Amino acid sequence: MAEHLGLHTVGDLLHHYPRRYEERGQLTHLADLPMDEHVTVVAQVADARLHTFASAKAPRGKGQRLEVTITDGNGRLQLVFFGAGVHKPHKELLPGTRAMFAGKVSVFNRRLQLAHPAYELLRGDAEETVETWAGALIPIYPATAKLESWKIGKALQTVLPSAQEAVDPLPESLRAGRGLVALPEALLKIHRPHTKADIEDARARLKWDEAFVLQVALARRRHADAQLPAVARRPKPDGLLTAFDDRLPFTLTEGQQKVSAEIFADLATEHPMHRLLQGEVGSGKTLVALRAMLAVVDAGGQAAMLAPTEVLAQQHHRSVTEMMGELAEGGMLGGADGATKVVLLTGSMGAAARRHALLDLATGEAGVVIGTHALIEDKVQFHDLGLVVVDEQHRFGVEQRDALRGKGKQPPHLLVMTATPIPRTVAMTVFGDLETSVLDQLPAGRSPIASHVVPAADKPHFLARAWERVREEVANGHQAYVVCPRIGDEEDDPKKAGSKKSPEDEAEKRPPLAVLDIAEQLAKGPLRGLRVEVLHGRMQPDDKDAVMRRFAAGEADVLVATTVIEVGVNVPNATAMVIMDADRFGVSQLHQLRGRVGRGSAPGLCLLVTEMPEASAARQRLNAVASTLDGFELSRIDLEQRREGDVLGQAQSGTRSSLRVLTVIDDEEIIAEARVEAAAVVSADPDLTGLPALRTALDALLDDEREQYLEKG
Questions:
Q1: Kind and range of the H or E element at 318?
Q2: d(CA 709, CA 713)
Q3: Res. 606 pLDDT band, cuts 50 70 90
Q4: What is d(CA 335, CA 637) in angstroms, rounded to the nearest whole number?
Q5: pLDDT one-digit tens code per residue, 653-677
Q6: Neighbour tally for 649: CB within 10 Å
Q7: Which of 475, 495, 512 is nearest to 618 (CA)?
Q8: What's the rounded Cα separation, in Å, for the pair 527 and 578?
Q9: Angle at 546 between CA 350 and CA 566, to 5 degrees
Q10: Residues 125-135: what's their mean pLDDT?
Q11: What is the DSSP string of 495-506?
Q12: Any idea of the CA torsion for 462, 479, 316, 356, to the nearest 10 degrees?
């Protein structure tokens, strides 16, 4: 159990809850079985046939194959057993027998089948089995090939009596006030329910445990943060910020003003700001962040902005110096009075330029610094770091943010920006330990983007029309992107070729489309005569920059690229984007990519090309992306499909979540209520001295690694 399921103690096992329940009298819907997953089904044998065949191992027709068809009353499923493995099931699986079957669903001759499934007969007579499958509801546990659901079930029956000793983390007043059952009772009811109401009671209670313990962890962290000292930064009345606002050629949107006010209020307090700034692509987050940075410089501090890539750092540096004009030329001829220096610091800078930048930081000459992780290196010393702005937080590790925070004499204020409300952040927002600001208005002059799904397999003429649309945009003086999942110069690596394929890949037997192949096909075919260029991550940095510059200058019509263009590429004249194999990208990524078009006054167009069939989950995802431009809405969809990842820790891929019964989207109310209860408990008793059971639960949830993870934000 430890090896396959990560269960080390009786407590771990008791908290390994059933995934669902089968009813004795009812049968599973065989039609809805997921491909390639370990499933457990309860069904009845319809017929069993033994075939003999000749094979290399049994040349004289001595090979044996047992085919058993099981049914749930409306769907059918084939089971196959081979060789010596046929004898036992041939005797036991007689027509009319009911059993639980567990195995991996595969497809053979276009029919679903289970090869060599494990099975457990359900006899209604023998005392032992009636007791084991007590009640009408059979729990089905998350299982693996080595540990079938019923083995886990039997192990649980053995340890279930000790559930009586479980210590209850919920304060008695809270439990009574909300009418929740006690923990031992909840554990009994979830593993051995007699009625559906038992399951409901148990889940309601266990969801509260998860939400509450987690919220207490977050509330204690908020409480601890509020005790940390920070320097309050209040801008002086007519300093840099005022000068900057005066030179802006437009007025701030209401949203920008509101969010700026929230940030300035935080900066003026004596403990560190922890704020998340979420905003749609192009809603003007950079401007809001820049005003916060200038306010800190006005107050005598320095501000650092961290970007995930050099290209982005350079872009931010360019746009910040352009927006500031002579205000960014502190100490130079032609610089305005009260101006500051804006320096760029990246890993690939020459030694002399780098020395210069480091000196400006150490003396405080540079008020604003923009850079990549190079900012975090030990050599980098700040004169007085007051604010850290992190762009695109999901590309940026907790440790890295931590190292940067350690650069201040006291903890600096922190502003985290993201354009895609990504699942972990959404989970954290719902769980909330960062204060959140949202920019949801697009500034004037940004155009709407129309998105459409192009089903290339069902309707090939739609794809032809897509290329015509690209030609039309170019004919009108605009430019277009074509995005592909892969580059196409990978060597065929035999190790990779044999790696596990997802059922979708199996279904298509085709590698994702590649930039180099598509660029060539387009240049010779549908986009003949247009200037087609290629951009991908394995090109030399100088070549990449040259391509981007040509595209930005309008010297190329179509840019065929990988997702390197996902963040921060700003070409207002690009109005169309065609995403090939769009089903291979995540929802948030598609939303990010789409944000690259419609950045000027002409409307944008995004075409999502896919060969996935109409009914597939992949197509539903794409339809969702096409139907809304709201990143928050999309991240909810993404979260519902992918689960949260581990809200507390490294497992970001969504495999093992520390949440067992709680789902972030459906249980928002519980989470919000638990947050209020937790805040009250923590403010009354920050060290939880009066609640030993809650402390124990907290320690179990937060081993050292996670505790630090939370500490670091």
A1: helix 310-324
A2: 7
A3: very high
A4: 49
A5: 333 345 666 666 667 778 778 888 8
A6: 17
A7: 512
A8: 13
A9: 95
A10: 46
A11: HHHTS---HHHH
A12: 130
